[in-house]
Amino acid sequence: MAASTGALAAAVSAVLAVTVLLASPVAAEEGCTRRPVVFAFGDSNTDTGGTAAALGSYLPLPEGRTHFRRSTGRLCDGRLVIDYLCESLNMSYLSPYMEALGSDFSNGANFAIAGSGTLPRDRPFALHVQVQQFVHFKQRSLQLISQGEKAPVDAEGFRNALYLIDIGQNDLSAAFSSGLTYDHVVHHRIPDMLSEIQDAIVTLFYDGAKNFWVHGTGPLGCLPQKLAEAMNYDDGDLDDSGCLRTLNNASHEFNDQLCSVCHKLTSQLKGATIVYTDILSIKYDLVANHSGYAFEEPLMACCGYGGPPYNYNVNVSCLDPGYRVCEDGGKFVSWDGVHYTDAANAVVAAKILSAEFSTPNVPFGYFCKT
């Protein structure tokens, strides 16, 4: 009975801890000593409306139903990890670079676009293109200032800003969906991907950036999308948490090599701080130990089609005719089979803010406190 009582107490403590994190993610960071400026690059995990603005698409409710209670262009029922990270610095959410109306770039800009990857490098809106967009944004800003006009970010702001990169999931997903072997992905495709990320960091550094925050990719094999695909082929590759080992192993390989790239660049780029964050460990823990975080469905999409076990159908995705959406996204890790819910993103952000999963172990807000 004592052991059961102890386990119950631990579970209650875990739930209470998560409740605090969900309610007040900003508590993990102290205030900045200067105005925080963040420039973000990546894919749909970070896109705060860039795709909607660029393509003129509209994502109606239930997208954005949590917190915002309106369409925001995010592929989520609420906030993304980047939104929670911005909250931790008491700064405004990042406006998409592509949004012509209502944007506020005083705290930076978001160049992330849903569907983006690292390759091919010149295809809109690959990482290389996003970096070139930033270079244009900076040049235009400084040009306006030199002409006596106002710009949302000045030279000092660009110099002290944080440059956040979160990309790679789409590259890995596309590689396996195209039928490439595991060995080919690990030994050929991943090095090419990392070359693009390295080039982005180096380009930004020589353009004046010195603070970098680089996210590894999440556990690809835990996405309902990939699990539903594997189910059609009778894939027996599931681990104890119900995730696909092969895809997660590839995610680990990508992250290990990305961490090495960040370490190498830290030595080569004098004066730069490059922080690598192990997103895979954070997100896998949400699945493996979901009940401790008060999640009931770790591998089933809240918004999709088909019902259990994954509620994902490639032909009827979230918002497509016939889709179904859960009543309480707070019980789900996955929103639509690919992206996480507002509740899951809150926990991921809180883990990032702990610095426990970052190398080196510096706080997220270090760049605006020195």
UniProtKB/TrEMBL annotation:
Molecular function GO labels: hydrolase activity, acting on ester bonds
Positions in coiled-coil regions: none
Name assigned to this protein: GDSL esterase/lipase LIP-4
Keywords tagged on the record: Glycoprotein, Hydrolase, Signal
Lineage, broadest ranks: Eukaryota, Viridiplantae, Streptophyta, Embryophyta, Tracheophyta
Species of the source: Triticum aestivum
Signal sequence range: 1-28
Iron recorded as keyword: no
Family: Belongs to the 'GDSL' lipolytic enzyme family.
Domain of life: Eukaryota
Keyword Signal in annotation: yes
InterPro entries found in the cross-reference section: GDSL, SGNH_hydro_sf, SGNH_plant_lipase-like
